[in-house]
C-alpha cells in the first residue's frame, strides 16, 4: 500500500522525481511512499513527506483510491489532499531526485508512473480550480 499527497499551492501541485536506481527511475509523481505494516496511511504520508521533501503536512480528504498491477508487483494507492503546515519550509529534494511545482497544463501522462495516470484528470481539475 502506498499513500501519496496532492499538495496544491498558488495554482501549482508539488511533484517529486524518482531517484536513480528506483523502479521507474526518473518518473515524476505525487510525493509519498509505502505504508509500513500496522501504520495508518495518513501517518505514513506525514512521515514520507517529512523524509522525502522536508515538510510538515496536514492530511485531508481522499482524492482517489486505485489499484495497479505492474508485471512484477501490484500496488494499492491512496491519494490524499494535503496542506503544508504553517512555518513548514519550502519542499526540497531530501530523499528524491528532484522536486518541482507544476501547473495543470504541465501534468503530462508520459512523465508519470502508470499507477498515477488514473488520478491525473482529478488533479488537473483541482489545480486549475486553485489557479483561478
From TrEMBL:
<feature type="binding site">
    <location>
        <position position="52"/>
    </location>
    <ligand>
        <name>Mg(2+)</name>
    </ligand>
</feature>
<feature type="domain" description="Nudix hydrolase">
    <location>
        <begin position="1"/>
        <end position="125"/>
    </location>
</feature>
<keyword id="KW-0378">Hydrolase</keyword>
<feature type="binding site">
    <location>
        <position position="18"/>
    </location>
    <ligand>
        <name>8-oxo-dGTP</name>
    </ligand>
</feature>
<comment type="similarity">
    <text>Belongs to the Nudix hydrolase family.</text>
</comment>
<keyword id="KW-0515">Mutator protein</keyword>
<dbReference type="GO" id="GO:0044716">
    <property type="term" value="F:8-oxo-GDP phosphatase activity"/>
</dbReference>
<dbReference type="GO" id="GO:0035539">
    <property type="term" value="F:8-oxo-7,8-dihydrodeoxyguanosine triphosphate pyrophosphatase activity"/>
</dbReference>
<dbReference type="GO" id="GO:0044715">
    <property type="term" value="F:8-oxo-dGDP phosphatase activity"/>
</dbReference>
<dbReference type="InterPro" id="IPR000086">
    <property type="entry name" value="NUDIX_hydrolase_dom"/>
</dbReference>
<dbReference type="InterPro" id="IPR015797">
    <property type="entry name" value="NUDIX_hydrolase-like_dom_sf"/>
</dbReference>
<dbReference type="InterPro" id="IPR020476">
    <property type="entry name" value="Nudix_hydrolase"/>
</dbReference>
<keyword id="KW-0234">DNA repair</keyword>
<dbReference type="GO" id="GO:0006281">
    <property type="term" value="P:DNA repair"/>
</dbReference>
<protein>
    <recommendedName>
        <fullName>8-oxo-dGTP diphosphatase</fullName>
        <ecNumber>3.6.1.55</ecNumber>
    </recommendedName>
</protein>
<feature type="binding site">
    <location>
        <position position="32"/>
    </location>
    <ligand>
        <name>Mg(2+)</name>
    </ligand>
</feature>
<feature type="binding site">
    <location>
        <begin position="29"/>
        <end position="32"/>
    </location>
    <ligand>
        <name>8-oxo-dGTP</name>
    </ligand>
</feature>
<dbReference type="InterPro" id="IPR047127">
    <property type="entry name" value="MutT-like"/>
</dbReference>
<keyword id="KW-0479">Metal-binding</keyword>
<keyword id="KW-0227">DNA damage</keyword>
<dbReference type="InterPro" id="IPR003561">
    <property type="entry name" value="Mutator_MutT"/>
</dbReference>
<dbReference type="GO" id="GO:0006260">
    <property type="term" value="P:DNA replication"/>
</dbReference>
<keyword id="KW-0235">DNA replication</keyword>
<dbReference type="Pfam" id="PF00293">
    <property type="entry name" value="NUDIX"/>
</dbReference>
<feature type="binding site">
    <location>
        <position position="23"/>
    </location>
    <ligand>
        <name>8-oxo-dGTP</name>
    </ligand>
</feature>
<dbReference type="GO" id="GO:0046872">
    <property type="term" value="F:metal ion binding"/>
</dbReference>
<keyword id="KW-0460">Magnesium</keyword>
<dbReference type="InterPro" id="IPR020084">
    <property type="entry name" value="NUDIX_hydrolase_CS"/>
</dbReference>
<dbReference type="GO" id="GO:0008413">
    <property type="term" value="F:8-oxo-7,8-dihydroguanosine triphosphate pyrophosphatase activity"/>
</dbReference>
Amino acid at each position: 500500500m502506498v499513500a501519496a499527497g496532492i499538495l496544491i499551492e498558488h495554482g501549482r501541485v508539488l511533484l517529486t522525481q524518482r531517484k536513480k536506481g528506483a523502479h521507474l527511475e526518473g518518473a515524476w509523481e505525487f510525493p509519498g511512499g509505502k505504508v509500513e505494516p500496522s501504520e495508518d496511511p495518513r501517518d505514513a504520508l506525514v512521515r514520507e513527506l517529512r523524509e522525502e521533501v522536508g515538510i510538515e503536512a496536514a492530511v485531508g480528504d481522499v482524492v482517489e483510491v486505485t489499484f495497479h498491477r505492474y508485471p512484477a508487483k501490484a500496488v494499492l494507492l491512496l491519494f490524499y489532499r494535503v496542506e503544508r503546515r504553517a512555518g513548514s519550509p519550502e519542499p526540497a529534494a531530501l530523499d528524491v531526485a528532484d522536486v518541482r511545482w507544476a501547473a495543470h497544463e504541465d501534468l503530462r501522462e508520459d512523465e508519470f508512473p502508470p499507477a498515477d495516470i488514473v488520478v491525473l484528470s482529478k488533479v488537473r481539475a483541482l489545480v486549475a480550480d486553485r489557479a483561478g
